[in-house]
Amino acid sequence: MRIVQILPYAMARPGGVQAHVRDLSRWLRGEGHEVRIVAPPTPDGICASGTECCGRSRLVTMFGTRFEVSYAFGPERRRLVEDLRDWGADLVHLHTPWTPFVAWQVWRGLRLPTVTTFHATLPGTEAGGVTARLLRAAAGHFLSHSRIVVVPSPTPLAHLGAAARDVRVEVVPPCIDLEPWRNARKSKQNQNLEIVFLGRFEARKGLDVLLAAWPGIASALPDARLTVAGGGDLKPLVEAALAAPHGGRIRLVERPDDATARALVAGADIFAAPAPYGESFGLVLVEAMAAGALPVAAANPGYAGVLSGEGAELLVPPGDAGALARRIVSLAGDRPARERLAAWADARAQYADIRGTGPVFARLYAEALRGS
Fold first, then answer.
1. Residues 62, 320, 232, CA angle at the centre, nearest 5°?
2. How many other C-beta atoms lie within 10 A of the C-beta of residue 371?
3. Domain range holding 162?
4. Do 342 and 268 belong together in one domain?
């Protein structure tokens, strides 16, 4: 098959959708399929290697997160569409289609059989109102033009509305190659508790909640240390925490590369993931578990779907800094519980590994081409 992966986010920027597209495309090529990735560049014009960049983009903020809004003018768009047609593209996999505009433009120009993945889950407070109605209307358009719709968990379905009942919907975890995360594992020899946060410095990822929890953690665990890795608009909060009491035990690592990020997570005992909303899955939780770090996470619907069963012990109420602090302190003092939950986490991480999910997507593509 010749597959075009189209997404609205710059591949040069870290993100769960980007990681999913990257690892799925690599696996598909290894299976003998041909794949081309189409995305906008970053606002400053950076195009990731192996990506067909189209249009221009700018960052906007909505629902506590930042993402690209992009647009491609006619000649550039037509050249790319014609090139993809000449290449012999068979099928489009369209990701997060309600983010305008480049992904829409290229997809519409190709007019090929389409598998669509709705990755995003909006905050619960936006489930009603004008915004939700507009998004459901947009979702209905893409649903009606997709042969198969994929969601990473049931949580995005509420935003798709009644139109989702009339199409084939498959729940498939995002793809991630966990081998690099497993290879980064270290034999834990930390004398004291090591906690790491890795992600964008924004409200949707809950960094403010973690920093509010830190004084309580640091007071109860005088030798615990916190690493905050990433970048974004909430960096001033990190700088304020560094200057506050207990700030000497906080380490800031700005925008680590992939290898450094894996090493940071693998070296930690606890992976703090306090995102209060907006998660349809928990790819970062799966990566952390594969690397040997135990996640303590907010019980948003996406994370709760990953940390189910025994893993529910690792969940805390979203936005509750006190509960986050108490859970981390409790785990620090209960090594048998940490070891038991680590064994559960190691097994749980397997279900999103590319070796299991890749064949599922290949099968869905073949069925979409057959008109199933």
1. 40
2. 7
3. 2-177+353-369
4. yes
